[in-house]
Amino acid sequence: MTKKPERAFGKFSVAMVTPFTPDGAVDYQSVTRLAKKLVADGCDTLLCSGTTGESPTTHQPEKNKLIETVREAVGDDVFIMAGAGSNDTAHAVRMAKGSANSGADGLLVVSPYYNRPSQRGLVEHCKAVTQATDLPVMLYDIPGRTGLAFSDEALDELSKLDQVVGVKDATGLIDQGLVRMRRTGLEYYSGDDALNFAWQTHGASGCVSVVGHLTATQYVHMTDLLDAGKVAEALDISYNLQPLVDAIMGGGQGAVMVKHALHLQGVIDYPTVRLPLVQATDEEVSNLKSVMREFNLL
Fold this sequence. Notes:
By secondary structure, the protein is α/β, with parallel strands linked by helices. The protein has twelve helices and eight strands. It is globular and about 50 Å long.
């Protein structure tokens, strides 16, 4: 097992939405407000251009300016991670280089989707993106979206790269993750808000959250309690947040729902999304408002 740095990607991260104006342009003023809010709430890492940031429908100049805008908003003490995910390796390499040149501190590299390469192809893709810069890399295992899970052998091979230091896991297979993090020495981060508590009690370093747009303070406190061995108190926080997790992640598409929540709070000016995503229905928004009121978020 290769020993990797502890919490190389921080304690708590939010995969930031990318706010848009009604005509679909990136709303950089709202980006600034959102980034400042998240850091004030306790985030020590922010992810730009993840899937929640609608990375499939934002473009290279926008991705680069997002990083620059967030950096200007939060300063140098906050770790900025950037998505470099594509099923075209050359495209992912360009994203990685652009992110590094724009001031990112680390990269999130997801498995190539749709064209479903072999595990050997997956390894070579991740190696190419990793070696395009000198930034630390978090691999992203989310086979429910990509159709391509990381095998044990692929992770073992990639963990030998000094720059590969973590995994964002959205497989739901916590037992598998426990074995893998022990065997490889890679840091694991929960990629599923419903399982944040469970992942961390099984050895994960932290979370990359969507619901944390609204609840970063509570999730950071939960992690602090776990660090202090106060498991029962941490469980209470996880249990109490579950209705909000359900409203954001269970009632619709996460990026769509959390944009509506942030708009209702006045953090971002509009809940606009880019096709093929569409805005939430009136019923979904009504349910979201009801749950947010219960949590004193409105």
